[in-house]
Amino acid sequence: MRWNKYSPERKGKWVLVYKTVDESIEFPNGIDVFGCTSFQGVFTPDGFKRGAYALIGEDNDSDAYAVLKECDGSTAKSKALEACEEIKGKLGKPSVILMHATPGFEERIIEGINEFFGNEVPVYGGSAGDDDLTGKWEIFLNGKKTNSGFLLVGFNGNVFGHFLSGYLPTDKKGKITRAEGRRVYEIDGKPAAIVYNEWTNGLIDKYLESGGVVLAETTLRPVGRVIGKTFGVPKYLLSHPHMVLAEDKSLTFFTEFKEGDEIVLMSGSKGALIKRSRQAVEMALRGKSYNNITGGILIYCAGCVGAIMDEVNDTIKEFKEQLGDGVPFIGCATFGEQGCFLPERENRHGNLMANALVFTG
Question: Which of 38, 59, 67, 68 lies 20 to 30 A from 268 at CA?
């Protein structure tokens, strides 16, 4: 496995490309090139860089088969079922699926994957990003690209992943009492934005009357849901508050909720966000048997990148040290993250999360 600044002249078995929105790429014949756009830069062994960068599979690396589907929220699940059928036809049951969607309907895609494979195939990945949330994101496979759809890549072989938050729970808890999709109207029977503002000691005060986007203010104070436990320690799926709607003081997120969901206010720090890239690799390999690490993929929330931009290369250093000196990798800054909670083998879509895929011999 190799990594390089992307060039169509570089040949291999398959090529995964992450790029910034200002970079256009050419596609060679005879080799699958697939990937998505990333927020502000791409994670590489040489730092967080603008441009297009590739992770290149070679003859002795994992087999891969990629499927791209154009869809919207109403067709995402059925298209995911079709994509899984195609992957199974080429690979059988893959060891893992790498997922890159455009933002908005990630839950439907995961529903399709889970329905087809019965939760037997772990999913890791993230939603395509752009520089400024203006919808310039795209996913691509060879000469085809779209800003509304998804890319699923099945890998065979020894590929291991882990999905984690890196945030800690506070003592502020509540229950969703009214919600519709990604819009939460009430927590404990009170307007959601007012409750969240009380929990955070006035963090979004200025938005309660006027409304507006609160992503920057809330990056280190998301809400979480307990998905499972490892050795008695709860594992949290995070949701990032996106916008206050002034007319009813509701709050939108980048994940869906249902009435009855129990949530807790979470707290993050720059130091914890930097170190979690190392932890993702460590946990992906814990208890696994393998000969050597041949490559890696880092998926890291764009909101968290924004929060640690001055120290983002420290995150790369942590990831690089845990993978091992000289191991090739690339990574994407995403607008939503997907991963598998183990040992429950539950694939979920979350926000402000990180995940790692590690290829081994």
Answer: 38
Q: Which residues contact 315 (CB under 8 A, 6 or more apart)?
A: 43, 273, 274, 277, 300, 308
CA dist., res. 207 & res. 214, Å (int)? 8
Alpha helices, DSSP H, located in the chain: 76-91, 106-117, 192-199, 207-210, 215-218, 270-285, 302-307, 312-323
Tell whether the model's pLDDT for residue 5 goes beyond 80.
yes
pTM over 0.85: yes
Domain interval for residue 17: 2-164+271-360
Indicate if 61 and 132 belong to the same structural domain: yes
* C-alpha span between 40 and 22 (Å, rounded): 10
Domain-ending residue, one of 215, 241, 267 = 267
Q: Show Cβ contacts of residue 233 under 8 Å, excluding neighbours closer than 6 positions.
A: none
Which letter, b or e, does each residue of 238-260 get, where b requires 16 or more Cβ atoms within 10 Å of its Cβ?
bbbbbbbbeeebbbbbbbbbeee
For the chain, the C-alpha Rg in angstroms (whole number) is 19
- The answer to whether residues 129 and 275 belong to one domain is yes
Nearest to 45 by CA among 339, 352, 322: 322
267, 299, 327: which is the final residue of a domain?
A: 267
- Give dist(CA 184, CA 193) in Å, integer: 9
At 302 the three-state DSSP class reads: helix
Q: What is the pLDDT of residues 322-340, one digit of tens each?
A: 999 899 999 999 999 999 9
Residues 236 and 104 occupy one common structural domain: no
d(CA 335, CA 131) in angstroms, rounded, equals 10
pLDDT at 154: 98
H/E stretch holding 142 reads none
CA dist 304 and 210 (Å) reads 26
Task: Give the residues across from 236 on adjacent strands.
Answer: 226
